Amino acid sequence: MRILLNGDPFELEGPVTVEGLLAHLDIDPRTVAVERNLVVVKKAAFGDTPVDDGDQIEIVNFVGGG
Fold first, then answer.
1. What are 56's strand-pairing partners?
2. How many CB atoms neighbour CB 20 within 10 A?
3. Do the beta carbons of residue 59 and residue 18 sit within 8 Å?
4. What's this model's pTM, rounded to 2 decimal places?
5. How far are the Cα atoms of 2, 13, 19, 54, 66 from residue 24, in angstroms, in the given order?
């Protein structure tokens, strides 16, 4: 399966959920926001939201500062 991940082509073994994608990338789901096809995915739905072939996924890290 092929997706766009933060604007770059990315190959995945499917099927996978947003939660599974984050685990594959070794990303803590508590520290990021995820957008799937221009729609923000709520954290509570990470485990239920599929990542499908051709999806555009944006993962944004929270950055603190002042």
1. 4
2. 18
3. no
4. 0.91
5. 15, 10, 9, 18, 32
Residue 21's contacts (CB-CB under 8 Å, 6 or more residues apart) are 12, 51, 57
pLDDT on residue 64: 72
Q: Is 45 helix (H, G, I), strand (E, B) or coil?
A: helix
Q: Are strands 32-36 and 56-61 parallel, antiparallel or unpaired?
A: antiparallel
Q: What is the identity of the amino acid at 62?
A: F
Q: Split the chain (66 residues) into runs of 10 and give each run's mean pLDDT.
A: 97 94 96 97 98 98 74
**Cα radius of gyration (the chain):** 11
